[in-house]
Amino acid sequence: xxxxxxxxxxxxxxxxxxxxxxxxxxxxxxxxxxxxxxxxxxxxxxxxxxxxxxxxxxxxxxxxxxxxxxxxxxxxxxxxxxxxxxxxxxxxxxxxxxxxxxxxxxxxxxxxxxxxxxxxxxxxxxxxxxxxxxxxxxxxxxxxxxxxxxxxxxxxxxxxxxxxxxxxxxxxxxxxxxxxxxxxxxxxxxxxxxxxxxxxxxxxxxxxxxxxxxxxxxxx
Length: 220
Prior knowledge:
Distance between the termini: 9 Å
Structural class: alpha/beta
Mean pLDDT: 95
Strand content: 5-15%
Number of strands: 6
Shape: globular
Low-confidence stretches: none
Number of helices: 8
Order of helices and strands: EHHHHHEHEHEHEE
């Protein structure tokens, strides 16, 4: 008998390939503020090593020799979120196997949760109209004091699910996410995304191209 009770999902890069939408939204926010900042793919890959959009902006300020303007960073991040919401409203495809897995897990009576350090507004924009079963627990960036790779987001998720780490599987796409889930004691399935391919996933129980026909009983 399986002791698996829940599946816990990261969002960006795991549920959907959203990072290019985020990158474009950052650039739109910079342009709207009259800043001569453009993040190309290579620069954005570097900045993804820092979790959290506002923290990425502040990191860029520091590395570009700009003042550490917290107020401006927050304004830019808020503007970026608006542009991102507009982009996902047009429609975003979830990664292969994601919707089917979530639907099958719900029918099987597994609890579903999200553990992300993206904002609730970004998450709501992505999930709006997706037709997915309800997630019993959602822990987002506003709910934690320390972002990934710290395990706080997963520890809070487990606490709210009222289960032990061994009773859940986590799904991630990045090394920072894997570190976060692993530090919380979770077995983690990694599906590398556009910007995380090639990172160190040695701690994962499996590294898969996507979640097509994923059999959770194999890892339960």
